[in-house]
Structure prediction request, 335 residues.
Amino acid sequence: MKKVWLLFLFVHLFAHFGVGQSVIENPGKPLSKNPGRILRLKEVMRIIDEGKAFYFKLPWGLGVAGNGSVFVQDGIRFFKFDPNGEFVKNILREGQGPGEITTELTNFGVSEDEILLLCGPMSKIVRLDFDGKLIGEIIVEECRPDRVVGFFDNRCLVFDFKVISFDRKEGERPLDHTLFYCDEKGSCESIPGSFPTKSYVRIRKLGGRTAVSGTPMTQLEFVGVQDRFLYISHTHEYLIKQFDLESNQISKMFRRDFPRSKFEADDYRPFKYYNDVHRLVAHQNDVWVLTSAFDSEKGILVDFFDEEGKYRDNFYLPLLNSKTGTAIISCIFRS
Prediction:
């Protein structure tokens, strides 16, 4: 009975971690007969900072609601624009009271009918409607949320972030990201498994003091599809994990043959390659992978996978002013 129980435990953990699970291997060429074309972009809106009703300091995140409203994270501010791009108001309130955030707006998510604003230092998630009216807030007590995903099964799904090693040595530093469900009272339920990334820690002597800095080597990227699947990338190499929110486990892993994009190593960035996966974008029931492949005339290469992990197509986005691997790109696609 002990052997049977251990076997069951290993199978259960492997299903969550993806250990031992086969990876769907795709060739370097997609199934489409006409890959590699340039997707022509049509401008439908332009928001210009004229310094009158509002001004941008450091616009970072971009989200679009189902009614066409556009939301832009700008430091500690959160701007709302109507479907025509006209400024409405800043819906974020600074402070420490109900519905207020201070210190930092870490991350946000836009669902079908509400906005989730995460303040990591306060371990607080503020829920607002699209007009900025407070729906409620969640004070998370059992984990330290770093990224908010959204609401599933009446609970908020977040990524928790941990530094695995705290030694003061220069070199690679492992970081850990774990999924948690948080209810309205702040109680958390962890989902077995993790999605590790790496940072490079650098130690320098400045006068009589020691300065410690970190450079991300890999980054956590994710996107939700169909309110059921969460697609996740967290490694150097090309690998996408499909996480099933109904069974709370990795349901598929897939990749394709991909030539790595190399850059010269230097003191600031002592590693050789860009991350193969730069950004994940949801489009209907499929996932688009913005890769590190960049053509000076065509733009960024985007791969298209279906729900089964099949490499169906690829195309170029003509974002010629963005340097692959360093640019922050927010993409909105309308079907």
Observations:
- The two ends are 54 Å apart (CA to CA).
- The longest strand covers residues 171-182.
- Confidence is low (pLDDT under 50) at residues 1-16, 324-335.
- Residues 2-17 form the longest helix (16 residues).
